[in-house]
User: Fold these one by one.
Assistant:
Number 1:
Amino acid sequence: MKHVFIINPKAGKKDATAAIYEMADRLREKHGLAVTCMLTDRPGGATDMARRLAESGEEVRLYAVGGDGTIHEVAEGIAGFPNAAMTCIPSGTGNDFLKNFGDKAPLFADAENSFDGDVFPLDLIDCNGRQCLTIACNGVDAQVAESVHEYGAMFSGRGSYLASIVVNVLLKSLSHRWELTIDGEKQEGDYAVVTMCNGRYYGGGSTPVPEARMDDGILHTVVIRKVTKAQFAKLFGPYSDGKYRELPKDLIQVVNAREVTIRSKGEIVSCVDGECFRSHEVTMKLSDKKVNFFGPKGCDPNATAIGI
C-alpha cells in the first residue's frame, strides 16, 4: 500500500511543507511504510494528482495537507475509486471540515494517529459534477465565500468571514430571481440562499443544519426567500447557530431532497467546500457513499451532530 501526502504549500499563513516531509520520514522509518510527498502548484492540482494515483488501481492512502479547499480537491479526485482512501492534515485557515469530528479533530494534525485507522465511506454532494464533502451553497453565503479571501490578511478565518458578510449585506443584493426545482417540483421566486448540507460546518464555524450526518444518505437543503437587510441581520445569528426551527417559516425552510436545481438568467454564485464558481444553472444531488475516508481510531464524522 502507498501512503501519499498531497501538500498545498500555499494553504494557511505558514508553509507546512518542511514539517510534513519530516512527518512522512517518521512514518517511513518507524513503520516501514511506502511514503511519498507531492506538492500542488495550481488550483485543481490536488484533484489531478489524487485521480492519477487512484486510477493506477493500486491500494493507496492519501493525506490532504491544507485547508478545506485541498480536502475538497483530493475527495473529488478519488470519488468512486474503491482502492483509494483519504484523510487530512490541517494547515489551512478555517478547517471547517474537521469540526465535524468534534474532540478528535486535533488528532488529525499528526499522521501517526491516522495512518492505520479504519476506512469508512462518506456521502458527497454532486454539484454540477463537482464532488462536495460538506456544504454546497448558492446565493448570499456563496457571495460571502467568494469575497472572503480579500480580508484574510487583516482578520482570522472567522473574522474575514464576518467582514465579508458585512460588505455583501451592505453593498450587494440579498436576493435573486430563480427557478427552483426540488425533487421534480418547480417553484419560481426571489431567493437569498439555497444551501445543501451533507456536513455541518462552513464559513468559519456556522452550522446551518446541526443534525446533518455525512454517511446517512440524507441531504438537507436550506431555502431562504427574499429578505430585507434588516431581516437578514436578525436571521444571521440563529441561522449560523443552527436554530432554523426558531425562524419564520415564510422566510426559511429546510427540506430533505435528493436533487435540487437552480436556474437563473443572471449568474448564480455557488460555493462547494469553500471553492467558488459561477453559472446560470446549478444541480445538486446525492453521491451516496462515494468517497473512502480514514482517520484516528474512534473518530466519527458525526461526532457533533445533534438528534432530530
Note: The chain has seven helices and 13 strands.
Number 2:
Amino acid sequence: MKLAYSPTSPYVRKVMVLLHETGQLDDVTLEERATTPLSPDQTLLPSNPLGKVPALERADGPALYDSRVICAYLNDRAGGSLYRSGARHWDILTIEATADGILDAALLMTYEWRMRPEDKRMPEWVDGQWDKIARACTALNTRWMSHLQGPLDMGQIAVACALGYVDFRHDARGWRDGNDALAAWYTAFDSRPSMQATRPPAT
C-alpha cells in the first residue's frame, strides 16, 4: 500500500498513529505530497480528486481517502478493535467526529492567516472557528472523560491528534483553560510511543 501524506497534517497523523498501534507501519510506503487548497499536488489527484491527504492506494481496489475512511479500513484490515461494536461504536464515531470538527476549525484558522491576503483576513471569523474548538473541548471535558480514559479506541486517537494540532498551530489560545481533566488525559496519552513517533516537525 502507498500512503500520500504530509508530516504536518493532523489527518495524516491519525492514520500514522493507527498504523503504529496496529503494527501495520511496515505494510505502507509513505509518499510525501505538498498540497494546499490553492495549489493541489497534481500527482495526488488520481488518488483523491479532492486533492487532499491522506490518500491510501491499495492493490485490491481504488484508492481510499478521508482519514476516517482510511482508519476504518486499516483497523478492519488488522482485525483491530479500535471501533468496537454495539453502543460503544456510536460513541467512538461521535468522539472521532468531534475531534475532526476541532481539526477542521483549527485548519481553517491556519489557512486564514497563512493563505489569505492581510487586508482580506477576518479576525471575527477566526474567533468563530476558535469558539467551535472551545465548545468541543468543553464537551470532551464534561461529557466524554470516562470514555477517553477507557480502553484504546479511534476516538481517543482522533482527540489526541486534534489537540496536538491545536498545540502545534494555536497554542497561545489556551484550550486547556477550564479543561483540567482533558488536559491531564492528553498529557498522559501524548506520551504513548505512537504519538511521540508522529510528532509534526516544527515549521
Note: The domain at 2-77 is CATH 3.40.30.10 (Glutaredoxin).
